[in-house]
Design goal:
five-stranded antiparallel beta sheet, Penicillin-binding protein 2a (Domain 2), 724 residues, seven-stranded mixed beta sheet, transmembrane, 4 domains, 31% helix, alpha+beta
């Protein structure tokens, strides 16, 4: 029995092992034949395991002004990291990981603004945790080209850089609310406000990819089977904004904030013939390159409805003329008006009025009673509401910017119907006022405001979409518009006009209307009292007979001196921006200048030597900067025949360009120089140049990178404009 058992067991084991062997061999044969394990393609899996695949991020499109000046663009910065894994080094003579922690830390410290001990601790902890690589926090991110080059020059083993795109705004606080902001999400730049947000689908491109085979140390093989799918960069967006007019506006807003410390300032410049917004700005604003403590995220020009005050009388006047009930010589009693027995009385802004005056004088003096009687008695409340709606009040304009708010017509009770006539109760936005005013400036045709001039393909330059002028209504006739302009001109020219000697321009007639709007107190529901607790505004057009430019400016609660007119801040902005913009656009003057303004016409410079041009400029009293030692002129920053002021700096590039001493230069001036010479530019800080990386007198080419440090305010100019 035992013998029989002994003979059977070996046979049984042989059979079991044979079956197992056949199963294993069969499995290998199957795998070899099909290349699959449990439905997984092992060849494909192996290829994936030894293949690196990276996304090639698409470059975000650039936002330009109407003439091609970059306002928002992608900028490459660098992130520093340190490799700690010894296995990354394949040749001991060329180490690729950090060898000496203390030496590495000591050399990196001054470049990263960190203590050497902090860096050493990060490196040591990384080693102990057996990490492949480490970084050094925010100090090792967003390094500029100069910082990267300085660190690379240290030749430290194991120190590497990764390129990263950021959104960069060359002009800093410049139409910030309009241009908008971006955010980084999963290493992608996403538009979140302004044009950046509304045009995000165009500005954002389609990422590509690159794949290649590598070894276990992540090093590309000699025959890597590299596959590249090219990225499709985002489209470029061109705005209707004009960089020079926007700069005039920004500088004026900054000056008013510095001088009068207002709660809010808003201004818009438009072409009334097309609806194009040439400039738009607010204060408080922000620097998108360095946000800090942002006091106002909203674009008040389109998103902050308020009671506009007497600028609304423009449309009350135009409605009365159109309705045929306007008689400029008819008299009325100013001071106080009660529309009915149970209606609260309203008063003129001086409380007592000016006695019996004509309706023309009433408009010139900005009489609330004149406006109320025109709307409530002569036009009629129902008909006046029709005109308000025809002028677009109570509805969004549809401007191509996100965040627009409509405002509302408060018109339920007789007192509201009366106060709406002079801009109280009913709310509107600055952009609504501007749209409505295009009807007055443009022969009765009301134009929709727009800010996107065109969208172009970044690679081909082909136009994808183009902004067009759009007539959105005709609330008044051409004849009524002309009559309204004539009357509004007297607001500025008449000695009793509220704009007299305040909003007049040298060389140009102005038609416009002042506004002094009361501010509701959110706690009590009543209006604030006190001389400064108003929104002081002006809506003006020039030249008065046929306006080429139109501007609205409002200043909320400025701090005024006792002897200072309440219009001082708003008139400073209007006069400075409008007068210089009209000249810049070469719009013919239509009246004799009351004050001679020294304007220089840039002489012809082509085929002239440097010395010949500088002699001509010296004789004209111009301010200029010669870039280089050559006597052959390669480029000049302004065109021949262009009219400029003596303080505007002209840049003359010679055939031997060299870097000048930039101390005291504004960032904007350095940007002009960069655009002319084509070099790369990085900067830090705000204000004016105090330090430059390339010394004065050194040659510069398009391959060089200049880094400047900005700091502090420039010395006050001695020729500050005084209010009349």
């Amino acid at each position: 029995m035992k013998k029989k058992s002994t003979e059977i067991m070996p046979l049984l084991w042989i059979c079991l092992f044979s079956i197992a062997f056949l199963i294993i061999v069969g499995r290998f044969v199957y795998i070899q034949a099909t290349g699959e394990v449990n439905g997984v393609d092992i060849k494909k899996l192996a290829a994936e395991k030894r293949t690196n695949e990276y996304t090639i991020p698409a470059k975000r499109g650039t936002i330009y002004d109407r003439k091609g000046m970059a306002l928002a663009q992608e900028h490459i910065v660098y992130r520093l990291y340190a490799v700690l894994d010894e296995k990354y080094t394949t040749n001991e003579d060329e180490p690729r990981h950090v060898i000496d922690i203390q030496t590495t830390a000591a050399k990196l410290a001054p470049h990263l603004d960190l203590e050497a001990s902090e860096i050493a601790k990060i490196l040591k902890n990384g080693k102990e945790d057996d990490r492949f690589q480490v970084e050094f926090g925010s100090n090792s991110r967003e390094l500029n080209q100069e910082q990267k080059d300085d660190i690379a020059a240290l030749d430290l083993p194991g120190i590497y850089f990764m390129e990263e795109p950021i959104r960069f705004y060359p002009n800093g606080t410049f139409a910030s609310h309009t241009i908008g902001l971006t955010d980084k999400q999963d290493n992608n730049i996403i538009g979140i406000s302004g044009v950046e947000g509304s045009m995000d689908e165009y500005l954002t491109g389609e990422s590509g990819s690159i794949s290649y085979q590598r070894d276990k140390f992540n090093v590309k093989l000699l025959n890597p089977n590299e596959i590249i799918n090219k990225a499709d960069d985002g489209d470029n967006v061109y705005l209707t904004l004009d960089q020079k007019i926007q700069t005039l506006l920004e500088d004026s807003l900054t000056e008013v904030v510095k001088e009068y410390n207002p709660e809010r300032v808003t201004a818009i410049v438009m072409d009334p013939k097309t609806g194009e917004v040439l400039a738009m700005g607010n204060r408080p604003s922000f620097n998108p390159n360095n946000l800090g403590d942002v006091q106002n995220w909203y674009n008040d020009a389109i998103a902050n409805p308020f009671e506009p005050g007497s600028t609304m009388k423009i449309f009350t006047l135009a409605s009365a003329i159109e309705e045929g009930v306007w008689n400029p010589d008819e008299k009325f009693k100013s001071g106080k008006y009660k529309g009915g027995e149970n209606i609260t009385a309203i008063r003129d802004h001086n409380w007592t009025g000016w006695g019996n005056i004509s309706y023309l004088e009433g408009i010139q003096r900005s009489s609330n009673v004149a406006a109320a009687k025109l709307a409530y008695e002569k036009i009629g409340s129902e008909k006046f509401l029709h005109y308000l709606k025809a002028f677009g009040f109570g509805e969004k304009t549809g401007i191509d910017l996100p965040g627009e708010v409509s405002g509302s017509i408060l018109y339920n009770y007789p007192i509201e119907q009366i106060t709406t006539a002079f801009g109280q109760g009913t709310t509107t936005t600055p952009i609504q006022l501007m749209q409505a005013a295009t009807a007055v400036a443009n022969n009765g045709k009301m134009l929709k405001p727009y800010i996107i001039k065109e969208i172009k393909d970044a690679e081909s330059g082909e136009t994808i979409s183009k902004g067009v002028s759009e007539v959105v209504g005709q609330p008044i006739s051409s004849e009524t518009a002309k009559k309204t302009l004539k009357i509004l001109e007297t607001v500025v020219t008449s000695k009793v006009g509220t704009g007299y000697n305040r909003y007049n321009l040298d060389g140009y007639t102005v038609a416009g209307k002042t506004g002094t709007a009361q501010i509701p107190d959110p706690e009590t529901g009543r209006y604030l009292t006190g001389r400064e607790n108003y929104v002081f505004s002006f809506l003006g057009m020039a030249p008065a007979d046929n306006p080429e430019l139109m501007m609205y400016v409002s200043v909320k609660q400025p701090e005024l001196e006792d002897d200072e007119p309440d219009s001082a801040p708003s008139s400073f902005i209007f006069r400075n921006v409008m007068e210089n913009s009209l000249r810049y656009l070469n719009i013919d003057a239509d009246k004799e200048k009351t004050d001679p303004v020294n304007v220089i016409e840039v002489p012809e410079w082509k085929n002239k030597s440097t010395s010949e041009l500088t002699e001509s400029l010296d004789s004209l009293g111009a301010t200029y900067e010669v870039i280089g030692d050559g006597n052959k002129i390669m480029d000049v920053s302004v065109n021949a025949g262009e009219q400029i002021t003596p303080i505007q700096k002209i840049f003359i590039v010679t055939d031997q360009p060299k870097i000048p001493d930039l101390t005291g230069w504004s960032r904007r001036e350095v940007l002009v120089l960069r655009d002319m010479l084509g070099f790369n530019l990085d900067w830090s800080g705000e204000g004016y140049v105090v330090k430059q990386s390339i010394a004065k007198g050194k040659p510069i080419t398009s391959q060089d990178t200049l880094t400047i440090e900005l700091s502090g305010p420039k010395k006050e100019s001695s020729n500050k404009e005084e209010e009349s």
